[in-house]
Amino acid sequence: MKILGLTGSIGMGKSTVAAMFAAEGVPVFDADAAVHRLQGRGGRLVMAIEAAFPGTTGADGVDRPALAAAVLGDDAAMKRLEAIVHPAVAEERAAFLAAHADASLVVFDVPLLFETGGDRHVDAIVVVSAAPDVQRIRTLARPGMTPAKFDAILSRQLPDADKRARATHVIATDVPLDQTRAAVRRVIACMAARAGG
């Protein structure tokens, strides 16, 4: 099995590219979706997060805006949150690998792949990228997003140019969708060749 790390800064189109890999039959582990499950209604991290950050949870699980307000811009608080979340996500990832043990290629969709050291655990890395103005327009169109919040999120992420420099493959999303899909198919073919398939 080859493991392909998929990453990209906020607003770059990573979810679209992940869906394209899935549509080609490649199993995709979505780290953000795992976090949402773990922090949602009945999620196993809700009590631990409430204990560490009182007032950030409710009947539906973690109140994401409240939690963001509690940790963004506070490195110590962010580290406390990561110490709760990262081990649980690692367990989810291990279960995913066990469930797809017969796959020749899987994708780990991880927004903070480089920032968390996840790049050491994959065979190749795809960075999803778009022009800065496209990224900004996409991100600010999200509900509840503000320029200040966008800047705070960017400050915690490795710059796009650095990610691209460390990538095995770069997939552009500020081009027509068929071009992006063709790039995904090229990466799959390349990984199959590397695996001897």
Estimate the mean pLDDT confidence: 94
- CATH level-1 class: Alpha Beta
Biggest beta sheet summary: 5 strands, parallel
Shape: globular
Count of runs of 4 or more consecutive helical residues: 9
End-to-end separation in angstroms reads 11 Å
Q: Which ranges are low-confidence, i.e. pLDDT below 50, for 5 or more consecutive residues? A: none
- Radius of gyration using CA atoms only: 17 Å
CATH topology: Rossmann fold
What report would you give on this structure?
The protein is of the alpha/beta class and 197 residues long. The chain has a single domain, classed as Rossmann fold (3-Layer(aba) Sandwich), CATH 3.40.50. It is built from nine helices and seven strands; from the N terminus they run E-H-E-H-H-E-E-H-H-E-E-H-H-H-E-H. The chain has helices spanning 14-23, 31-39, 46-52, 64-71, 75-99, 132-140, 147-155, 160-166, 177-194; strands at residues 2-7, 28-30, 57-58, 61-62, 105-109, 124-129, 169-172. The chain has a five-stranded parallel sheet, sandwiched between helices. Helix 2 (31-39) packs across helix 5.
Short synopsis of the structure:
The chain has 197 residues and is of the alpha/beta class.
List the helices and strands and how they pair.
Blueprint lengths: L1 E6 L6 H10 L4 E3 H9 L6 H7 L4 E2 L2 E2 L1 H8 L3 H25 L5 E5 L14 E6 L2 H9 L6 H9 L4 H7 L2 E4 L4 H18 L3
Parallel strand pairs: 1-5, 1-6, 2-5, 6-7
Antiparallel strand pairs: 3-4
Keywords:
7 strands, 9 helices, Rossmann fold, 197 residues, 14% strand, five-stranded parallel beta sheet
